[in-house]
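Hi P.,

Sorry for the delay on this. The queue was packed all week, but I finally got your sequence through. Input first:
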Amino acid sequence: MSAAAFSCENGRVTVKTEPAKKAAQPNLRLRITATAETIVRKGHPWVFAQSVRSQNRPGATGELAVIFDRADRFLAIGLYDAESPIRVRILHAGKPRAIDPGWWREQAGAAFARRNGLFDAQTTGFRLINGENDGWPGLVLDQYDSTRVLKLYSTAWLPRLAEMARLLEGENRLVLRLSRNIQKEAHDEFGLDDGTILHGDPLDGPVVFLESGLRFEADVLRGQKTGFFLDQRENRRNVETLSKDRSVLNLFSYSGGFSLYAARGGAGRVCSLDISEHALAAARRNFALNQEHPAVARCRHETIQTDAFQWLRQNTWERFDMVVLDPPSLAKKELEKTDAMAAYTKLIEASLARVNPRGILVAASCSAHISAGEFFGLARDAARQSGRKFDELRTTGQPPDHAATFAEGEYLKCIYFSLSD
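Then the structure:
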């Protein structure tokens, strides 16, 4: 394929393509272990380095790798990543298929079609492509009003970025976000930085979008994820329905998503607590954007900049009618799982102690290495250990625009407790 080059002038990135200078090589052909063959046949999108038994030549990151089974039959094709433990990210399995521009257009169209009918004009922020779960391993695409944000989690996409940008740019603006582990290579090899605008006009601030009729800022250039936590939309809606006449504490509040929904739901007082003043300032701006809603205008919104772990240990006297506990991932690696489960248990125990009689605790986890069953189990154990009478109102998973098709893709879970005393 062509090599992509990027140049920046007056805040806009220009994509140029040049013919690849290397002579054509035979297709990269891999054979994998019997166990890995079975896993790929079942639809898993990753082949790990230790599962590769042989290959016909060294592979270059970003090229297509064709995987054959033990009988020398086509098994799958995917993006090769020479340096990653995930050596091949599967694009297609089953019968042989050319991965050409037409195939990429079909893949994008299919992902977009899955979102048809999910949102009305009152919600203009949502996920268009959810990585492996939509057949785009290591790539997500989010929409914020007329701005799209393309986030890459693998260097395997960088050689193909020019082609993908043209396909996914939409009508207005396309912003590139890069996971931390690929930022150096993106800069050194391709001249790309996190927050680069690939298409459209420069940005001088956050993008404003609608969610359930509420206005929110999305810091698409520097914010966490792609600028906002779109995956908690349904849980925010649930919190709104439970908030009338309550005082609400939003721990790890970030830019105040749960806080604003609680306010519109009729909460008399909402406290947003986060370690980042930058995030809290965004929360205050989000409240200011929604003063036309009478309930939001009436609500007393407070912000506290502090570490939530420390605050829960020290401020043992203050109680709320609802506590929302939505910390960042506490287990980003499998090795961190045991400590993370202990930390979640402590957080839930401390949060339960801050809930008034007849109050509600909403506890969420976005740690993919902790399953829903494990998280719900430790939450129930913590509730029983508290000695308080409680009812479990519901458990939730990921919203439909973030639907998961394999186990590692199921990262979000949330449980709701109603306390009797």
